Amino acid sequence: MMTKYDENFGFWEDTDDPEVAEFYDQVQSRSIEKACEGCGRTVRILPEYAYCNGCADAIERGVEL
Questions:
Q1: What does DSSP assign to residue 51?
Q2: Cα 54–26–65 angle (5° rounding)?
Q3: Is beta strand 3-6 parallel, antiparallel or unpaired with respect to 10-13?
Q4: CA-to-CA distance for 29 and 21, rounded, in angstroms?
Q5: How far apart are CA 38 and CA 19, in angstroms?
Q6: 38 vs 2, 9, 11, 45, 49, CA distance in Å?
Q7: CB distance 3 to 13 below 8 Å
Q8: How far apart are CA 49 and CA 29, in angstroms?
Q9: Which of 14, 28, 53, 61 is the most exposed place for a label (fewest CB within 10 A)?
Q10: Span 17-49, pLDDT tens digits
């Protein structure tokens, strides 16, 4: 099983599955470099996203950024 990481969704498992790999490639092709509104780091995320995966996880745990 292959695992990859990106700033949109975190860890991707089963990227050797053709459907998962296709969706992963779609997400990567649409991602752009921009500053995360939480931590300020420049990351590759989808244009409609404001936060990197780490900040989104923190927000879900109740951390105020």
A1: S
A2: 20
A3: antiparallel
A4: 12
A5: 31
A6: 29, 16, 19, 13, 11
A7: yes
A8: 15
A9: 61
A10: 999 999 999 999 999 999 999 999 999 999 999
